[in-house]
Amino acid sequence: MASIGFIGLGIMGTPMARHLQDAGHRIITSKFIIPPRQELVDHGLELVETPKALAEALDTIILMLPDTPEVEDVLFGENGVYYGLGEGKLVIDMSSISPIDTKEFARKVRETGADYIDAPVSGGEVGAKNASLSIMAGGTPESFERALPLFKLMGKNITLVGDCGDGQVTKVANQIIVALTIEAVSEALVFASKAGADPARVREALMGGFASSRILEVHGERMIKRTFEPGFRISLHQKDLNLALQGAKSLGISLPNTAATQELFNICAANGDSGLDHSGLVRALERMANHPVA
């Protein structure tokens, strides 16, 4: 089994790294804000001083970080991964970040003789824990085949979309669909509840028809039961929709419903809800309706 560098051991990264450990891989990390969870340490997690040292010692480095600036800092900041790279090494960025910046990161990494794959994921904390993530990869076919055994330990639906950056484009498209579907479910449940119907029974009825979806199933239940502990925080979905809207501007296209949904997330953030699960978007509509889903 291989020794793998893994930087970014948070809500998503921890269970992903655990699956690699369970398969017999040795996981080594560096540079963290929050100390790694004890379960990783108990299963042999090791620590080196800097990301550069991690890259010097290992052939494969996985990143799972919150946003573009964090990825840039870990790669190219002082004692970053970039400065320890060389021929035959592989950087796998599983964060959800800017497609434009991803292409530039890949270009610089490839100059060292190493290769780069962007492989953002969908499925949230549940998918990470169940090793059922959807993984959307951008990179060369050769590097994808090299990374595939690792991907199979963390996910189920694994697709090479194209070259570097295309994985991130796909993830942004995914986040548009997820956000708009959460918004639609929120509207439907607020409407039904305000009209006097039992939202739980409405959801149950809708689950048997064409409106059925994973988001109605999981997030609809969260809205009704008021369980907004974060699997995927509103603040992170705001970040993803910012990437979508920035990309749309650069392409000269309009994403009107994405922009409207982002405004609802902004309302949530203005009311102190940015740390809630993104299903908490319903709270913005509840405020507008002066009526909670109940």
What does this molecule look like?
By secondary structure, this protein is of the alpha/beta class. The protein has two domains: about 5-165, 3-Layer(aba) Sandwich (Rossmann fold); about 170-290, N-(1-d-carboxylethyl)-l-norvaline Dehydrogenase, domain 2 (Orthogonal Bundle). The chain is about 50% helix and about 15% strand. It contains 13 helices and nine strands. The strands form two sheets. It has a six-stranded parallel beta sheet, sandwiched between helices. Strand 8, helix 7 (about 140-155) and strand 9 form a beta-alpha-beta unit. Helix 1 runs parallel beside helix 6 (about 125-130). It is globular. The termini are far apart. The mean pLDDT is about 95.
Q: What order do the helices and strands come in, and which of them pair?
A:
Elements: E1 3-7, H1 13-22, E2 26-29, H2 38-42, E3 46-47, H3 51-57, E4 60-63, H4 68-76, E5 90-93, H5 99-110, E6 115-118, E7 121-122, H6 124-130, E8 133-138, H7 141-154, E9 155-162, H8 166-194, H9 199-206, H10 214-225, H11 234-251, H12 256-270, H13 282-289
Parallel strand pairs: 1-2, 1-4, 2-3, 4-5, 5-6, 8-9
Antiparallel strand pairs: 7-8
Helix pairs in contact: 1-6, 8-10, 8-11, 8-12, 8-13, 9-10, 11-12
CATH topology of the largest domain: Rossmann fold
Mean pLDDT: 96
Shape: globular
Q: Which structural class do the helices and strands define?
A: alpha/beta
Residue share in helices? 40-55%
Largest sheet report: 6 strands, parallel
SSE string, helices as H and strands as E: EHEHEHEHEHEEHEHEHHHHHH
Corresponding CATH architecture of the largest domain:
3-Layer(aba) Sandwich
Proportion in β-strands: 5-15%
Query: Domains counted in the coordinates: how many?
Result: 2
- Gyration radius from CA atoms, angstroms: 20 Å
Number of helices: 13
Rounded to the nearest angstrom, the distance between the terminal CA atoms is 51 Å
Number of strands: 9
Can you tell me the CATH class of the largest domain? Alpha Beta
Which stretches are low in confidence, meaning pLDDT under 50 for 5 or more residues running? none
